[in-house]
Design brief:
The complex is a heterodimer of chains A (342) and B (303).
Chain A: E1 10-13, E2 16-17, E3 20-21, H1 23-39, E4 43-49, H2 56-61, E5 66-71, H3 80-94, E6 98-102, H4 105-118, E7 122-126, E8 128-136, E9 141-153, E10 158-163, E11 170-174, E12 191-194, E13 206-213, E14 225-229, H5 240-249, E15 252-255, H6 257-261, E16 282-286, H7 292-295, E17 303-308, E18 321-324, H8 327-341
Parallel strand pairs in A: 1-4, 1-6, 4-5, 5-12, 6-11, 7-11, 14-15, 14-16, 16-17, 17-18
Antiparallel strand pairs in A: 2-3, 8-9, 9-10
Helix pairs in contact in A: 3-4, 5-8
Chain B: E1 5-8, E2 11-13, E3 36-38, H1 40-56, E4 60-65, H2 71-80, E5 84-88, H3 98-110, E6 116-120, H4 131-139, E7 143-154, E8 157-163, E9 167-174, E10 177-181, H5 193-199, H6 205-215, H7 221-237, E11 243-245, E12 265-271, E13 280-281, H8 286-298
Parallel strand pairs in B: 1-4, 1-6, 4-5, 5-11, 6-10, 7-10
Antiparallel strand pairs in B: 2-3, 7-8, 8-9
Helix pairs in contact in B: 2-5, 3-4, 6-7
Classes of the chains: A alpha/beta (342), B alpha/beta (303).
The complex binds flavin-adenine dinucleotide.
Chain lengths: 342, 303
């Protein structure tokens, strides 16, 4: 662990695979920038890989003041042990006060290993990060300017705010799509710090035999409008209604976990706590009850239309437009109304 | 070639069962109304361990850290085929975060003879997925997370397929190793009737003590202790005593346990109350829908 260091920088792990930066690191830089400005400290990005220095400038454009670049032929593929050793060494050298990672499969594999080695705290899957004070009544002490790590817990039924005031860095993972992507500023200047690091074969206990990454088929996050269907749609055939309405609006289709489990649509389209988090201008929820885990992925939408035959359905609690009735009757009417306008 | 597996399991409130009855009138959760269950992905981890035992031989030991009531999940593991079960329980372990929990569990695993440590990817009460990787670091062994399928096991090496979210990865690794297992990996077996009949009487010492206290409210502490010692000896003879370790037994360093050993602290807990927002009810008629679409076009929500 490192001691409390209010002058320390705010760091982001800039995840990359095969020389391509993941969106999540850029999203995190947006928030890190805010936190850094509030604390009056610099924002650093940690970029690890082989032959990846060229990506550093982009991280500067997205908000980093400093990019710590660690290049080595043995770092070409992500491995838990090698990457966590690099971060461990950097953390001890530079003593950042905050370090955030994406809650991707890579980030959730890496961050706990680092936390354990550094003996620091880690909060998983934060949906918000802020700076605030903590009053410890039993000690009669107030800790100022801590990282408030806000996350849903207990299956999404409570919101917990977690802090660490004595053993730093303060570390958290954040889900993809939760923080808005910042606008890049191409004129922004930053410092690129190349780090030399000793890495040996003993840090690579895993042999990667084969790997397949498919590019995301659907980009729900980028859609201005999402038309989502739930179990109430009834069948895969009837899910055609969702596709038709989505097409008429130039929207992306989405679904609940129940609809995915029933085989109505592919898992890539799932919205919610264990799917994608979206915040479109318009979200149309059709035959969706509005379980808390689903709401976790869509409640921040600017406008929500809910269509449900049950007037008591919880989805209506977050809807701006409530339509009580049979979706089989209402959706065709909507398509007709839209087609009449355009 | 036989392999010894240790499976770390957890008893959790069934957050999937949050239905109307488990909700308070104000929209918050009534935790007491939730049943305690075997964490779902820990069943997948146990299944993988039992599968390794079926194919290659070896021993499956399950460990859990928790309150005395967590013995229930240990029994459920015994019903399914685990050979040995250990409860780690200690008041001083209360308020442990994932870092302290992984430290305590790693102290227990170090006392055991293991080739493979298995965990579920994550527990449904916290969904952190941190304890597995943290335990691996404390044990100084590699971790292989998100196991979807074990491919081969030979010469103390395993190969497996991991689910990496947007794809998969096949890896090879030398033992010992820690694996975290996802729900797609397998279909957990159900309890075996004959084992259920046998192990439903299995108890931890603390359960025996609590039971005797309830049955003999007027007995002195000395009498209770004598009764408990007898019962413990009897169960031990029948192979029905579930092991119970405390932090002392684990020789755990207290600075890394419980509240003191936990860098993360709770600042605030808020119940999620579903808030009503400014909203309008739209008539399900053609006119109602046309008006709504018109409004959304006018305010440029739909272009
Ligand atoms: C740990 C965990 C994670 C989860 N993650 C997610 C997640 O990421 N995303 C997610 O979506 N869920 C998730 N879930 C599942 C979630 O709890 C719900 O089970 C799920 O969202 C319900 O989907 P649904 O609304 O489609 O189905 P239901 O709850 O069955 O609702 C169907 C609705 O359709 C309505 N309906 C039926 N027929 C009609 C009709 N003809 N016309 C109009 N309305 C009709 C009904 O009134 C009902 O309200 C998760 C659960 C857990 C425990």
């Amino acid at each position: 662990m490192i001691s409390v260091n209010p002058k320390g920088e705010v760091w982001v792990f800039a995840e990359q695979h095969e020389g391509k930066l993941e969106d999540i690191g850029l999203e995190l830089l947006g928030r890190a920038r805010m936190l850094g400005d509030q604390l009056g400290v610099k924002v650093g990005a940690v970029l690890i890989g082989d032959n990846i220095k060229g990506l550093a400038q982009k991280l500067v454009h997205y908000g980093a003041d400093k990019v710590y670049v660690v290049q080595h032929p043995l770092l070409g593929h992500y491995q838990t042990n090698s990457y966590s050793k690099v971060i461990y060494d950097l953390v001890h050298k530079y003593q950042p006060q905050i370090m955030i990672y994406g809650a991707s499969s890579c980030g959730r594999d890496l961050a706990p290993r680092v936390a354990s080695a550094v003996k620091a705290g880690l909060t998983a899957d934060c949906t918000d990060l802020q700076i605030g004070d903590h009053e410890n009544k039993s000690e009669g002490k107030t800790y100022n300017n801590l990282l408030l790590q806000i996350r849903p817990a207990f299956g999404g039924n409570i919101i917990a705010t977690i802090i660490n005031y004595d053993r730093w860095p303060q570390m958290a993972t954040v889900r993809e799509g939760v923080m808005p992507m910042p606008e890049p500023v191409v004129t922004r200047k930053g410092e690129i710090v190349e780090e030399q690091i000793q890495i040996g074969k003993e840090e690579l206990p895993i042999e990667i035999l084969r790997e397949h990454r498919q590019p995301k088929k659907v980009n729900l996050k980028a859609s201005r409008i999402v038309v989502a269907g739930g179990a109430g749609v009834g069948s895969k055939e009837n899910f055609r209604l969702i596709w038709d309405l989505a097409n008429s609006l130039g929207a992306a289709p989405g679904a609940t976990r129940a609809a995915v489990d029933l085989g109505f649509i592919d898992r890539d389209y799932q919205v919610g706590q264990t799917g994608t988090t979206v915040r479109p201008s318009l979200y149309i929820a059709i035959g969706i009850s509005g379980a808390i885990q689903h709401q976790a992925g869509m409640a921040e939408s600017q406008k929500i239309i809910a269509i449900n035959s049950d007037p008591q359905a919880p989805i209506f609690d977050v809807a701006h437009y409530k339509i009580v009735g049979d979706l089989n009757d209402i959706v065709p009417k909507m398509i007709k109304a839209i087609k009449a306008r355009v | 070639m036989a392999y010894n597996c240790v499976v770390a399991i957890k008893q959790v409130p069934d957050t999937k069962r949050i239905t109307g009855e488990a909700m308070n009138a104000d929209g918050t959760v009534n935790r007491g109304a939730l049943p305690a269950v075997f964490n779902p992905e820990d069943l997948n981890a146990l299944e993988l361990a039992l599968d390794i035992k079926d194919k290659f031989g070896g021993k499956v030991t399950v460990i859990t850290m928790g309150l005395p009531a967590a013995s229930t999940v240990l029994r459920e593991a015994l019903y399914r085929g685990a050979d040995d079960a250990i409860l780690i329980t200690d008041r001083k372990a209360a308020a442990s975060d994932t870092l302290a929990t992984s430290y305590i569990l790693s102290c227990a695993v170090k006392k055991l003879d293991y080739d493979i440590v298995l965990c579920g990817r994550q527990a449904i009460d916290g969904d952190t997925a941190q304890v597995g990787p943290q335990m691996a670091e404390k044990l100084g062994i590699p971790q292989v997370t998100y196991i979807e399928e074990l491919l081969t096991m030979e010469n103390r090496h395993l190969s497996a397929r991991r689910n990496i979210g947007n794809g998969w990865q096949e890896i090879k690794c030398k033992l010992p190793v820690l694996m975290t297992v996802i729900d797609e990996a397998n279909e957990p077996r159900v309890p075996v009737a004959i084992k259920l009949m046998k192990y439903k009487k299995a108890r931890t010492p603390i359960e025996i003590q609590m039971q005797l206290k309830k049955e003999n409210p007027n007995a002195s502490d000395a009498e209770l202790k004598q009764l408990a010692d007898m019962k413990i000896a009897e169960l031990a003879k029948q192979g029905l005593l579930i092991k119970q370790w405390d932090l002392n037994e684990l020789q755990a360093d207290m600075q890394w346990c419980g509240r003191d050993g936990s860098p993360t602290k709770v600042h605030r807990i808020q119940s999620v109350v579903l808030t009503a927002r400014e909203s309008k009810t739209v008539e399900a008629s053609e006119q109602g829908i046309t008006d709504m679409i018109h409004e959304l076009i006018t305010d440029k929500t739909i272009s």
